[in-house]
Design goal:
Helices cover 60% and strands 8% of the residues. By secondary structure, the chain is mainly α. It has one domain. It has a two-stranded antiparallel sheet.
Length: 130
């Protein structure tokens, strides 16, 4: 089990951001249709963007320990208690904290200070090669 490098993490970030951005736009357009024709309350795009971000990561990492970007780069999320011999899958609580911490806008900028992203540090997880 080998931790992935920063370049892989950046590539994962870019691919996943594109995917949940598209999801957020589709949900926003769908909601605005209902606002226009059915009188639903208008919501700003930020609700859809951050909601999509949380749900995208929470569901995919909980079910598969991977997102589509992690499938492309052949890596997965595991508990930081994993060793070279044993891989410990991240718990529901760890995935929840990990997904919630991603909502902090300055999350990726902690790499120089902590050696990892804030969401990995707070949740006790790490990204390793599959």
């Amino acid at each position: 089990m080998k931790k992935v490098g920063d370049g892989t993490r950046v590539l994962n970030f870019l691919i996943d951001t594109l995917l949940y951005w598209i999801l957020a736009i589709l949900l926003y357009k769908w909601w605005n249709f209902h606002v226009l024709y059915w009188g639903y309350m208008h919501l700003n795009f930020g609700w859809f963007f951050f909601g999509s971000l949380f749900i995208y990561y929470f569901i995919l990492e909980l079910l598969f320990a991977k997102t589509p970007a992690k499938w492309l780069t052949a890596c997965k999320v595991v508990s930081s208690k994993s060793t070279l011999e044993t891989t410990i899958q991240a718990s529901v609580g760890q995935i929840f904290i990990r997904s919630l911490a991603r909502l902090i806008i300055i999350d990726p900028f902690f790499i120089p200070f902590l050696g990892t992203t804030l969401h990995d540090y707070l949740s006790g997880t790490m990204v390793v090669e599959s």
